[in-house]
Amino acid sequence: MARPAAAYEPAVPARLACAYTSCYCEENVWKLCEYIRSQDQYPLEEFYAVFISNDRRMIPLWKQKSGHGDEPVVWDYHVILLHVSSREQNFIYDLDTVLPFPCPFDMYSVEAFRLDDGLRPEFHRKIRMIRADLYLKTFASDRSHMKDANGKWQKPPPSYPCIETADANPTGVVVYPACEAGSGLLPCPATGLQQSHEDRSTPHCVGHLSPKTC
């Protein structure tokens, strides 16, 4: 008889043990990548930071902790971590979801993304994917986008210092402004991320959501 497949081993600690600050999803994902690199459990090249947004900065996601019932949360952008596993199933790490952590890719696609077909065009999602090793080298943020016109925090910042990396933009602003028009985002009209398995050393964009190809 064939042996049952070994259970998937999460790449990071349990949800409550992870570094997390509400509304700072891009930093939460950077911290997950940093932990994965320190453990050497999986090749870092199997992980991708996934920016979700659109030109209007209005993207609905379901099964979010800040949601109510079955209503979606409309973010200006959101960032999750994708593990393109060597196993049959891939996994999503989203610290803002009520779904399992990590969540099987197929479940996250159906429950959190859902289809763009039933959405008005202004809510159609786009994605940009950045390999985790490159994200760790080039991401930086001075968190100024989280302050209002008077310089007050709209949401409390993380307790640790601003993330600065050697290859980051010297201005310190978020390096991957996923919400900006023309920033390299691609449409994702179906229900899952179409993942390229090529080993690339630069930020790349992948679109057309289809869990069957991931």
Description:
By secondary structure, the chain is an alpha+beta fold. It is 14% helix and 15% strand. The chain contains three helices and eight strands; from the N terminus they run H-E-E-E-E-E-E-H-E-H-E. A six-stranded antiparallel β-sheet has the order 6-5-4-1-7-8. A hairpin with a 7-residue loop joins strand 4 and strand 5. Helix 1 crosses helix 3. The C terminus is likely disordered.
Biggest beta sheet summary: 6 strands, antiparallel
SS summary, helix count: 3
Shape: globular
Mean pLDDT, all residues: 79
Percent strand equals 5-15%
Oligomer: single chain
Which terms summarize this structure?
alpha+beta; 6-stranded antiparallel β-sheet; 3 helices; disordered C terminus
Short structural description:
The longest helix has 15 residues, at 25-39. The two termini are 28 Å apart.
Topology:
Blueprint: H1 25-39, E1 47-53, E2 59-61, E3 73-75, E4 78-83, E5 91-93, E6 103-104, H2 105-113, E7 126-131, H3 132-138, E8 186-187
Antiparallel strand pairs: 1-4, 1-7, 2-3, 4-5, 5-6, 7-8
